[in-house]
């Protein structure tokens, strides 16, 4: 393992990589796993001290040390994706006053207005200020080292800024070596994780995945996908013949006491993929309401109108969200239809669920 060693160039025809330190390494097979880079805002002053992005453990340590050294009292987060929302909780726990500056009216727009509203309420419940429909236009610092955040909605002063406006695949130096990108802008791979170049594989946040429901390439930079892709690439290099079957887009995160999860397609995505999609949203208890720890859970199911096949599900709530979405991830993968889900034999005992699970209820209502 060579730490702190960057590859500057891939020479496939010579089966060699050039290192930034002037050395080179020969290979029989190469795996490109260069990950992703945080998107920048492209506004003046982005290099002002006190502005961070969070991509890896080193970033996390830097942020933690900065907060402790100052000590910081206020944080501004730019963007309201899952990393920003998780960081709201971390900053609040560290005792900071938190403001989220977001381009849109609600966080996590993909999940729909109603679920975005629930996430917003959770932020408000935890004293996070949310500045909606606000563009950051620049940064600078005050003489005493505070960061000034300029927006089209006024100016903020803060100790620390975290930008979390998404990531893009790190495709250099792969592109310069002739490795092809797919329509998402990430490295294109086949089901064996091979790129267009013989002996060169790619895995993780630098490459695309095949979406099993839409049948299209997607860019889902997630850790579990990266891990599986890496295993498949490694196994194939080691002489096995493994296929990575693709993804259904399962994801989850937690914002304070709210669990958020999804799998498959949203209704809008399903329509865009050509399905005659229909959806229903129900609200139920995660377990019998008399049982300690029960919480409200909203579950949306998306199905194909004609066949009844489940295409996706999204859920938000205080408890039991991820377990439901994981069941539905298996259902989406297997192509189960609503008829099957309406009476599917799920494990039941009051500490975990009601005898009629939210999955049964949603499936039956959507069947009507
Ligand atoms: C705060 C945060 C929370 C997350 N939480 C979740 C979660 O809960 N669930 C989930 O599924 N995913 C989560 N993710 C995403 C997950 O971390 C990534 O999908 C995963 O780390 C991708 O792994 P990777 O190996 O492809 O890329 P990375 O982990 O980014 O690793 C790429 C490595 O390649 C190195 N590199 C790049 N270019 C070169 C070069 N030219 N030469 C040598 N080395 C190079 C980089 O320095 C880096 O070390 C989270 C990400 C963040 C930032």
Provide an overview of this structure.
With 368 residues, the chain is α/β, with parallel strands linked by helices. Helices cover 24% and strands 28% of the residues. It has eight helices and 22 strands. The strands form seven sheets. It has a five-stranded parallel beta sheet. It has a five-stranded antiparallel beta sheet with strand order 18-19-22-21-20, with helices on both faces. Strand 10 (136-141) and strand 11 (147-151) form a beta hairpin. The longest helix has 15 residues, at 223-237. It is globular and about 65 Å long. The mean pLDDT is 97. Bound molecules: flavin-adenine dinucleotide. Flavin-adenine dinucleotide binds at residues 6-7, 33-36, 54-55, 83, 170, 173, 204-205, 221-224, 226.
Number of DSSP strand runs: 22
The level of helicity is 10-25%
What is the end-to-end distance? Answer: 58 Å
**What is the overall pLDDT average?**
97
Going by helix content, strand content and strand pairing, the class is: alpha/beta
Number of helices: 8
Strand order of the largest sheet: 6-13-7-8-9
SSE topology string: EEEEEEHEHEHEEEEEEEEEHEEHEEEHHH
| Dominant shape | globular
- Are there runs of 5+ residues with pLDDT below 50, and where? none
The main sheet comes to: 5 strands, parallel
Task: Report the portion of residues in β strands.
Answer: 25-35%
Which ligands, by name, code or SMILES, are bound?
Answer: flavin-adenine dinucleotide
- Rg estimate, integer Å: 23 Å
